[in-house]
Write a structure and sequence with these properties.
Helices cover 23% and strands 29% of the residues. The chain is built from four helices and seven strands; from the N terminus they run βββαβαββαβα. β5 and β6 (106-111) form a beta hairpin.
Length: 152
C-alpha cells in the first residue's frame, strides 16, 4: 500500500479481534475505523471540531461483528452441525443471536454481513450452514467450491 496523509476527526478508540482502532470521521464525512498498527504517524493540528451531538460509538457498532459498519444490518439464519451447537450457544456469534429451533440447532441473528462477520462464519467450516439470506449462503458455497478446486 502507498502511504497517504489525510485529516480525521477522532471520536473514539475501539478494540476488535486483537487489534486497536481509532474511530474517526475522514475528510469525506464518513466515520470509519483506522487500525493503529497501520498508522505510521499521527500529527495533531490546530484544527478544532464539534463532537457530534448524540454520537454513540456503541450504537454505531451495535449490529456489527468487529469494527466494520459498511453494510446494512439484516436477518441471518444459520444451522449448526457437527456437535457445535453448545459452543455457539455459550459463545454467540453476535449479541442478537437467538435460537429459533432447538431440534435443528437453528439460530437467527440481526447483523451487518461484513467481512468480519463472514470471516467468523468461515472459521466454523462445515459446522455452520447459512440458511438465509440466499446471497450469503451462495457466497460461502462458492468459496468452499473454489477452495476444493484449488486443493485438488
Amino acid at each position: 500500500n502507498i502511504p497517504s496523509t489525510f485529516g480525521i476527526r477522532p471520536y473514539a478508540v475501539k478494540q476488535s479481534m486483537n487489534r486497536w482502532y481509532l474511530i474517526g470521521e475522514g475528510e469525506d464525512g464518513h466515520i470509519r475505523p483506522y487500525a493503529f498498527d497501520r498508522i505510521r504517524e499521527l500529527t495533531p493540528t490546530q484544527d478544532t471540531f464539534e463532537f457530534p451531538s448524540g454520537f454513540d460509538v456503541d450504537g454505531l457498532f451495535v449490529h456489527s461483528v468487529g469494527v466494520m459498519t459498511d453494510e446494512k444490518p439484516e436477518r441471518v439464519v444459520i444451522k449448526v452441525h457437527d456437535g457445535q451447537a453448545n459452543y455457539v450457544r455459550s459463545l454467540p456469534l453476535h449479541h442478537s443471536q437467538e435460537e429459533v429451533e432447538v431440534e435443528t440447532y437453528t439460530f437467527e441473528l440481526y447483523v451487518r454481513p461484513t467481512v468480519d462477520f463472514i470471516m467468523k462464519l468461515r472459521s466454523y467450516g462445515p459446522a455452520i450452514e447459512v440458511v438465509y439470506p440466499a446471497w450469503l449462503r451462495d457466497q460461502l458455497a462458492s468459496e468452499a467450491a473454489l477452495t476444493r478446486q484449488r486443493n485438488s
